[in-house]
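Quiz preparation item.
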């Protein structure tokens, strides 16, 4: 995610003030409640819970039926199964305020333990029916949890299919700290951008970045509107009754929060980058800057540049969408980053494209490691600026490092900023990028860029942890770096140079 400079400056002031009022308390009063305890549905666990590294700053993941065990988002995700594929059949009629969405989700998953029941994340909306392997299943709702009880126990290791028919009008997430995101109504349609917890406002699933799956979206919309999603587009056909239908397919694994749709009046341009990567961009008809051609050109150029820098582009296509959504952020939705109603400059486009490698292909296992996404994407902004002949990475580093030694900004640890500061522009974005620049100076350019490419290839389409990054940096760098990373990622004072 990225916030454009003007709005980002305002956010930084707010965050600095917040930090100043919570000096010394480690913001524990702001942390979300502890993970929901297991509700006991897994019948006989066959494997120990996965762990997120074993360093001093990592706690084991403890998934339960209704939680992935991530303390930043204790009610998100579920235990007991691993989703393989989401097939989302969505009829979206923005003009129907009472029932904008009429949908069927077919989810293919593999049980990781014997289950007499399992949970899906889904907020609000009306569920008409749930079937497991084609047989009607009982279900109950409780807050954001949809608990499904199939007619027979699902054996661990077995693949199963759950089909949910549901409808209603999804609502945006209005988070008191993170702001408004998720399903956003626009003047001509809707747009969905869902980091961290918005996906389950419009489709049921295992809404945590640790469970990636392939996706297909079949979108039925009023025929005067264009429907954009992640991945590659099929043919647009008539669905009758004034509606058209189009299928988008995401053939590489994707975290649910990176799923996007954008429906409205768009100008669309598609083709292939100079480097041979299929590209599709869409710009809302009311947006004049950048133009469709400019947006296409810069997206193609930067995608190719990062492919040379970070290694082969990890997905089937690149691109982006600029919609007239009243949100002040951009999000790195897989293959097709989405930008709100501001004119995105090269810096923010470079940021979201770098996320395709760092954040999307190499995903986090827990949200506290979000610097692995944002620190890397911010460092990519610095690199893009330098190669464009503007401010160099070293100049950016010097600027941010000049934050006074005693400033409260340094008190928020980059490697575990707390849920309410997971998008802290200084601690996560700038200090994350500073960490990488300091590392680059420590191990040298050759090893640093080998490290970035190795990180992208070893964890391609997977999930990773800070502990794994530190271990790889030590392996590639050929030197012990635990003190270095402790100071840069977990220290609460400005790291000495
Ligand atoms: Zn970002």
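Solution:
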């Amino acid at each position: 995610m990225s916030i454009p400079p003007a709005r980002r400056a305002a956010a930084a002031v707010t965050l600095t003030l917040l930090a100043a009022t919570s000096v010394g308390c480690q913001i524990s009063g702001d942390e979300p409640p502890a993970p929901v305890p297991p509700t006991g549905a897994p019948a006989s666990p066959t494997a120990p819970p996965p762990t997120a590294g074993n360093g001093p700053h990592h706690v084991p993941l403890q998934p339960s039926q209704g939680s992935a065990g991530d303390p930043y988002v204790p009610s998100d995700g579920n235990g007991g199964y691993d989703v393989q594929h989401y097939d989302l059949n969505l009829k979206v009629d923005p003009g129907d305020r009472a029932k904008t969405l009429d949908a069927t989700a077919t989810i293919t998953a593999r049980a990781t333990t014997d289950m007499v029941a399992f949970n899906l994340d889904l907020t609000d909306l009306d569920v008409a029916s749930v079937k497991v392997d084609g047989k009607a299943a009982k279900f109950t709702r409780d807050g954001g949890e949809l608990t499904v009880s199939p007619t027979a126990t699902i054996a661990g290791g077995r693949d199963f299919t759950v089909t949910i028919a549901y409808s209603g009008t999804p609502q945006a997430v209005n988070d008191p700290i993170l702001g408004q995101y998720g399903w956003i109504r626009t003047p001509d349609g809707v747009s969905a951008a869902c980091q961290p917890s918005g996906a389950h406002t419009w489709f049921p699933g295992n809404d945590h970045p640790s469970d990636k799956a392939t996706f297909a979206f079949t979108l039925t919309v009023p025929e005067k509107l264009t429907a954009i999603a992640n991945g590659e587009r099929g043919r647009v056909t008539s669905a009758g009754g004034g509606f058209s239908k189009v299928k988008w397919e995401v053939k590489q694994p994707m975290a649910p929060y990176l799923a996007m749709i954008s429906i409205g009046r768009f100008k669309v341009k598609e083709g292939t980058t100079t480097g041979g990567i299929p590209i599709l961009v869409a710009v809302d008809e009311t947006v004049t800057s950048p133009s469709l051609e400019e947006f296409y050109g810069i997206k193609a150029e930067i995608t190719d540049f990062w492919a040379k820098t970070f290694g082969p582009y990890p997905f089937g296509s690149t691109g982006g969408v600029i919609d007239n959504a009243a949100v002040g952020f951009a999000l790195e939705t897989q293959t097709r980053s989405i930008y709100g109603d501001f004119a995105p400059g090269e810096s923010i486009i470079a940021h979201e494209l770098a996320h395709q490698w760092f954040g999307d292909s190499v995903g986090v296992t827990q949200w506290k490691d979000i610097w692995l996404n944002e620190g890397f994407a911010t460092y990519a902004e610095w690199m893009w600026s330098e190669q464009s002949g503007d401010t160099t990475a070293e100049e950016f580093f010097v600027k941010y490092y000049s934050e006074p030694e005693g400033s409260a900004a340094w008190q928020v640890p980059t490697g575990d900023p707390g849920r309410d500061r997971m998008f802290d522009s200084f601690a996560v974005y700038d200090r994350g990028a500073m960490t990488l620049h300091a590392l680059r100076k420590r191990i040298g350019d050759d090893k640093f860029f080998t490290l970035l490419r190795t990180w992208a290839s070893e964890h391609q389409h997977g999930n990773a942890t800070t502990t794994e990054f530190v271990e790889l940096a030590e392996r590639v760098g050929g030197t012990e770096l635990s003190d270095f990373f402790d100071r840069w990622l977990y220290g609460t004072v400005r790291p000495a140079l």
